[in-house]
Amino acid sequence: MSAEPAAHRVIPGATVARLPVYLRALSALATAGTDTVSSEELAEAAGVRSAKLRKDLSYLGSYGVRGVGYDVARLRDEIEGELGLRHDFSLVIVGMGNLGHALAAYSGFATRGFAVRWLVDEAPDVVGTRIAGLTVIDFDGLARECNDSMIGVIATPPDAAQDVADRLVALGVRSILNFAPAVLSIPSGVEVRKVDLATELQILAFHQQHPRLDPKALDRDALDPKTDDLEEGAAP
């Protein structure tokens, strides 16, 4: 597998969004003891088309070896490097309601290079309590401890989200994951990713009410001469 330096490559945002999916698939393959994987096999594991996967990986300078495929360990290392996962990032979770509690206790962060370092809330009866092994602090306490690798996670009600975002930005945070159902006004240079659980459920509700037709059934209909006759206006 050839790999050219990717430092000067401009990687599209859609490709960046798929890299964690490829990384998860590669990690599963490595755990299963797989050393090499074809683009078709990796694409199937990631749920994308193989042509799209090959194009995405070409932005990293990874092209695989014809007849062999990709070296799983090497490709995983390349993606981790591109995503900046070779050192830990510190997470600050703001808002210690039910969602904040759940995020604080989520063990999946640690296995993917993210460490929850701070839990923040402004409610006097919450500050000082212990959640998932950490003591909840307020923003004044956060200001004394924050660092350059901090990523903010907003888990507040929507009416508090903008103020929280402003305060995080003022502390130097340049990456924010927003769980609050609110549109944030953010200065340039700050990246925000929005996770709207209610919207995702509404999309699922739509598909629940409007199930898609089975593509295989559609293919059979297309090959059925009776169907063609009906489409032509012939009597059944």
From TrEMBL:
NAD(+) binds at G95, M96, G97, N98, L99, G100. The keyword DNA-binding applies. It is found in: Cytoplasm. SUPFAM superfamilies: NAD(P)-binding Rossmann-fold domains, Winged helix' DNA-binding domain. Residues 84-183 form the CoA-binding domain. Residues 21-60 bind DNA. Pfam families: CoA_binding, Put_DNA-bind_N. Keywords: Cytoplasm, DNA-binding, NAD, Repressor, Transcription, Transcription regulation. Belongs to the transcriptional regulatory Rex family. Homodimer. NCBIfam families: PRK05472.2-1, PRK05472.2-2, PRK05472.2-3, PRK05472.2-4, PRK05472.2-5. Modulates transcription in response to changes in cellular NADH/NAD(+) redox state. This is Redox-sensing transcriptional repressor Rex. It comes from Barrientosiimonas humi. The gene is rex.
